[in-house]
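Structure, all two chains, one model.
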Amino acid sequence: MPISRRQLMAGGAGLALTGALGSACGSHTGRGGGGSSGPRLSQWYHQYGEAGTRQAVIRYAAAYKEADVRIEWRPGNYDQQTAAALLTSSGPDVFEASGPTLDQIQGGQVVDLTDLVKDVKDDFSQVVLAPKTHDGRVWGIPQLVDTQLLYYRKSMLRDAGVRPPGSLDELIDAARKLSTGKVKGLFLGNDGGASALDGTPLYAAGLGLVTDGGEVGFDDPAAARTLGKLHRLYADKSLLLGAPTDWADPGAFLQGLTAMQWSGLWALPRIRKELGDDFGVLPFPPDGPSGRPAVPVGAWTAAVSARSEHREAAKAFVKWLWIDRTDHQEDFALSYGFHVPARNSLAAKADRLKTGPAAEVVRFTKEYGGAAQPLLWTPPSRTVYQDALNRVIKGGADPEAELRAVVRKAGAELRRVRKRA
Amino acid sequence: MSAPGSTRRRPRGRERNRALWFWTFVGPFVAGLALFTYVPLAWSVYLSLFDAHNTVSPTDFVGLDNYTAMLGDPAFRSSLVTFAVFTAFIVPATYALSLGLALAVNRLRFAQAFFRSVFFLPSACSYVVAAMVWKLSVFNGVRFGLANTVLGWFGAEPVAWLASTDPPWYWLVIVTVRLWLQAGFYMVLFLAGLQRVPVRLYEAAALDGARPGWQTFRHITFPALRATSVAVVLLLVVGAFQAFDEFYNLLSDSRGYPPYARPPLVYLYYTALGQGQDLGLGSAGAVILALIIAVVTVVQSRVSGLGRKEE
């Protein structure tokens, strides 16, 4: 039977509509066929690399009976997606955030969650709760603690006659000695370390990005001295650059492209599976007389959009999942990737964190952990600082001159957010 | 015999009909253009006059502060320099390569359609996909990357193509990916231009003693391609201004973008749509960029005589 043009177009439109309906980006009902009362809530997560995480959060959502929670699992630039979505009413009700950022809080884009945590506030790791707190109010509930650290191959260091580095100078020397034709000494990310390390070298020098009083925390000669040393890593050709995967993934370390790599606790299970006991962990080593080992700590956070039509229902769900259901919190942190639970009580009883390198990381975190991104350290400050760090590491730019410009810009940003408050 | 009035009404009906059909076909496109181009443009200008952190409906009027801040921002000025360097590389390189390919394909006696398709095919490839292939396979920075494997045959050390700033090898990656992607498209434009050059011109030149090859190309072919050349250069310059996809996908990482090879659109993307969400400042940058593109295009059109009748 010949098909008329009209039939063809109608069929095409039908197919297009079916495709559009069937390909809602990363959405999942979170229902296992069971019904639920209450409003429909949209919950967003960034795409975790660890297998099983997505199924787990769908399972948690399905177990909640007071609302119909739909999970959206979003690959790509998650922070930018949420930032854009919060401008509209079609965004999520509940969302995971590496922030929320100070501008999102001051702009009224997220809901105050202080009353949800009031009874358990002291049970949270204060290092990760602090950047979620502004003017005494809590704007996000930490889901888990992510720690960054230095992995090293024991056998490679032993063969080269190198000790695990205990200072920045030792790290630079070790990286140089470990660099051979086929293996580089150290991997700090494909950009040479500017974005992965961020404020870590400043913490290692005994400084910080922002002081407790809300001023620039690195207007000090020690900052320039420490950052200037990082250029030696690049100049000595000790750094692995242009690896197929970046610093957050242990691929380069596992493929034997580098003897040491800066990464996160999340990579530990994969490293242990492939290398057995042939690896060790270290904090970023200290530098200078006031230096101390640096362990940057961050946390993915549950937040509620102020544009949600079901704010109270969204808050109730967040409370149920991230305050009340400690079994889900423990499962989420420890059963898939490898993270420290955000609640001290859960972290203390986690068997997997009591032995081997994981226990060492927990100890480092307790002793030296500091917020990787203080709340007052806004994106414009971060951009200008990372640009400067990049120029210092790779271009050998004068660290003093570069930092002077950063201090000016970051100071202006800090004044802006204070004025806005 | 019809009444006099009725003969006058019929043309009016036809005119109404014509207007109806005109708007039936043109209306949706005009509406789309207004909705997706002019309204956002106007909104962008409006936003640029306000402090618009994390909002598209700001209330804090700041006048021209965003413009002065953006023009005083070394990173934005540096992005304009990046654009200038990129344009200086990509425009002549693409022009020469696409014209060379067009001349070569035009001379073919057989399989011309095949070669035209082969060279044109990369134009159908997504910039994102091509950038990822270049980044992860061809110019991967470790020893098993394609380029480094070839270097390894000659005993050279692996090169971190996208991370080396001295020498700035990243330009090689950026320029080659765009060359590969767009040379075929401009080759087709030049081929169309070449096929419009009257054969009698070559015959007359041959009678006058012009040697085939360079002399004929210089005095006959190249001048005859003037209109095509002007259009190609204009499109290349505007395309260079709009560079985003390959830069972003080659050089960004999960936490940001390095301070080198950062074209204006990438910088504005991070300013307005990154976590900073400074939509006022980003809009001011977008307006400045649009004005620069407009001025450059007008100047270029005047200089090259775009749209002028060929003599």
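DSSP finds 13 helices and two strands in chain B.
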